[in-house]
Amino acid sequence: MNPVGTLYVAALSGCALAAVTALLAPPRARRHLAGWCTAAAGAAAAAAGTTAITTAITTPTTEAGTTAVGGAGRSWSAWLPDLLPLAGVRLAVDPLSGVFIAVTGFVAVCAAIYGIAYCAHGLDGRVFQLVLPLFVAAMLLVPAAASVSTFLLAWELMAVSSLPLVLAEHRRRAAVGRAGLWYVVMTHLGLVTILVGLVAFAAGAGGESFEQLREATLSPAARTVVFLATLAGFASKAGIVPLHVWLPRAHPEAPSHVSALMSAAMVNMGAYGVVRVGLDLLHGGPAWWWLLVLGAGAASALFGILQAAVASDLKRLLGYSTTENLGLVLVGVGAAGFFAACDAPVPAALALAAALLHVVNHAAFKTVLFLSAGSVLHATGTRDLDALGGLRARLPYTTVVFALGALCASALPPGNAFVSEWLLLQSLIHAQPAAGVAGAVTMPLAVGAIALSAGLAIATFVKAFGVGFLGRPRSAEAERAGESPPAMLAATTLAAACCVALALAPTLVLPALVRAVGVAFPGRDVAGGQVTLRLTGVAGMISPLLIAVALVAAVVAVLCLVRVGATRRPRRAARLWDCGAGPMSARMEYTATSFAEPLQRVFGDVLEPESDVDVTPMKESAYLVERVSFHARIPDRIEHRLYEPLISAVTAAGRGARGLATGSVHRYLGYGFWALTAALIVLVVLR
Description:
The longest helix is centred in the middle third of the chain and has 36 residues, at 345-380. By secondary structure, this protein is mostly helical. The chain has helices spanning 3-24, 27-54, 95-118, 126-144, 148-166, 174-205, 210-215, 220-238, 247-253, 256-266, 268-281, 287-309, 314-341, 345-380, 391-394, 396-409, 416-429, 436-469, 476-479, 486-504, 510-520, 544-568, 592-602, 604-607, 637-656, 665-686, and strands at 76-80, 89-93, 527-528, 533-535, 541-542, 610-617, 625-633. Strand 6 and strand 7 form a beta hairpin. A three-stranded antiparallel β-sheet has the order 3-4-5. The protein is built from 26 helices and seven strands.
């Protein structure tokens, strides 16, 4: 067994050991032992994925079913025929799956260390500690699955194991139960569509292994059915509009380190599925497939960040930000497929590399943000930005790391997301004239969508940081806040350090991602360079390290000038201008709601905000007002316009169908007979 296989098996074994430890360890030591075992498993997975991307080992296939090849091929594979009835279990780690395994392992390390301290109050039970490493193991199995049955089994295990984690705090808040219901319904509807698509694919290919699927020859109609069915399921997992409704519900209600796992690792599996099935197994497709993917990604990016910009719940804001960033990833994937269909291999490889780099960058900064949000929740007991403020003095370290994560999420230099979005824009800009008329129309729109989402992201995270951490405390909870325990700070520091490394040295990461790009587009180089990132095949270069040095030098110079100017002038104490209203108080500060009010006005037709004014008169006279209260709410318009009517229709149909349930066994047998007859007639007609 080569190093990739050894490390990958060690990661799965570590997850199994963590689960057994959680089951058998005494309560006092349970979360420590399970947490460190899960962290060790995550580290092994990160090492396995990194090795699969960066090394090229060539060994022959053995009778046990393991092999390793160089280039864009498999780094390790295994077939376990006795583990699963009929088909067995097929696993394979290639550079593409290695990217997602490495990302999942890194996030698991941070989440597991963080959870050791975070779970001390009410989350140290046997079930929660048992399910968490199983969830990590399932996310490691999904990208390594090399057959339809193995993939579907791992996908379902990922869904089933994550549900108890989402519902962990259902006894504290009723909203947790509702979020869990939305999550389980949308997850399993997505599983059904993936099942239909992959089973149809396997039936047409005459086998279920991914090698057989790659060699299959399907009709154009069958290929389209497979792609659209799987796309719907993968888009649901990735939180893509309009299948995103579970995400802003489940991510805020889950424990914060679970939110980090879901938002920084689990949703990536949706993007992985689109790349694996669409670009690898189906070898691409017609241009309209990928324009559909690109359009869905652009719509998700804009809708997600717009909802985040007006959200006042900190974790809900981060959940909608996940929809935005996975939308950007799908813009890159869709552009790559479209350029490949237009016979433009250079921008296709560049777009896919940008998408994979953004997966890595998003995982890093979203881990920082969710873990920092968990520290805020741990210290104050609230996620409401309107009730926070003044945390800079009380949570100084959390303030610094959240500011770093916010900078990265805003796609501003020197943040890490700036590099991946710059690469994505370069691929879209350099697509002409090879992309044809369709590209000439759609690529400028995609560039505009990315630019608008970046601007809204800046406003969103300025609001989150400024309203949440600066100013004065707006509640007693914020006034009493204290810094997090060392384990939580250590995990957040690790994620923040990764953000800094990705921001300053993408030249170390991007060349390694070329191997993953080679799975879909063999033999294509993307970029090179040590300090300066130089694109291959198109004109473009950037040096994030030099940009960071220049920015630091400029800031230092400005501060020195201000300091010199301040020392030359005499200082005097003066009262801050308060418009004659008296000393400034927390009630005079901007809240998250008031900060977002201009955006609500500009995008009112899209957001459709709801407001209500209640006037309570005095008992003595209806003309005298005792109290005026104002309530504002911005619902999810897609949920309001699409899902609520659908749920109402299903509810009405269910009530109408109650008459069919009479309790008569003879009638039930009749239902079965006529259903079987109808199915046989349909099969005869289709044959």
